[in-house]
Write a structure and sequence with these properties.
- The structure holds two protein chains of two kinds.
- By secondary structure, chain A is mainly alpha-helical.
- Chain A is built from four helices and no strands.
- In chain A, helix 1 (4-26) packs antiparallel against helix 2 (35-53) and helix 3 runs antiparallel to helix 4.
- The two termini of chain A are 15 Å apart.
- Chain B contains four helices and no strands.
- Chain B folds into two domains: 1-30; 37-93, no CATH class.
- Chain B is flat, with a radius of gyration of 21 Å.
- By secondary structure, chain B is mostly helical.
- The chains are: A mainly alpha, B mainly alpha.
- The interface between A and B is large, with 44 and 33 residues.
């Protein structure tokens, strides 16, 4: 099935959605928003991509490994940021004194918070998309394809 | 027999939770731990302590970062549960 209207809409809306999600993520320490909301928006753009291109070509499928990478990578960023605190001789997930805090109000500030927000964003985007993917394609055949 | 054991365990967990709720401070209680100055500390010091001008982000990812790690774990368990339920009995890479 190939839907031209859906595809043209997707070409405009998917990059716009992802840009907005990245804005929410990168401004998590400056304005309302953060890892969970920004990650959900980016995950929604993946779902839209999957809905638009699912039936057109195999190469347009987002692989299960991709969503798994987001999911696990986000968790590893979070835990890794926490372990830096231990390596620096402080507590797990210490920000002050371990990460450069910078000037409050600037984009590159708040040290660990920005890093962890990006990690949560990747993780939540992976979660949202993987749940969609598994419910859409999963559980049918051993290889996961119809 | 298994059902009886399940009911007993669930009742035990329920009683534990109710005991925990009974220990919680009343809503709006001025002596509650939440009203002992922690609010003022967050508002006054969060920008200096964490560098984030969004106090919510300062709380959930710095002061309470360990708690948020638990929340992220909930999402992880949700994905694992859905995958396990859908692929039950199959080998899945």
């Amino acid at each position: 099935m190939h839907d031209m209207i859906l595809e043209m809409l997707g070409r405009v809306l998917i990059p716009a959605t992802q840009l907005f999600g990245a804005y929410i993520l990168f401004h998590g320490h400056l304005s309302p928003g953060g890892g969970f909301s920004g990650g959900t928006i980016i995950g929604a753009s993946f779902i839209f991509y999957s809905l638009v291109y699912r039936f057109t070509a195999k190469k347009h499928r987002l692989k299960h490994e991709t969503s798994l990478l987001f999911e696990v990578g986000g968790a590893l960023i979070y835990v890794g940021a926490g372990l830096v605190g231990i390596l620096a001789g402080r507590h797990f997930l210490t920000n002050q004194g371990v990460f450069p805090i910078g000037e409050p109000g600037r984009l590159w500030s708040s040290g660990m918070i920005l890093l962890v927000t990006l990690g949560i964003g990747a993780k939540v985007a992976g979660t949202v998309f993987k749940l969609f993917q598994e419910l859409l394609e999963g559980g049918a055949e051993p290889d996961g394809h119809h | 027999m298994r059902k009886a054991i399940t009911v007993v365990i669930l009742l035990g967990i329920g009683v534990l939770f109710m005991l925990m709720v009974a220990e919680m401070p009343l809503y709006g209680d001025p002596n509650a731990p939440a009203h002992q100055g922690i609010m003022q500390k967050y508002i006054a010091d969060s920008a200096r302590d964490t560098g984030a001008i969004n106090t919510i982000a300062a709380i959930i990812i710095d002061y309470r970062a360990y708690d948020t790690l638990g929340e992220a774990t909930v999402l992880f368990v949700a994905v694992v549960a859905v995958t396990a339920a859908l692929y039950g009995g199959y080998e899945h890479a």
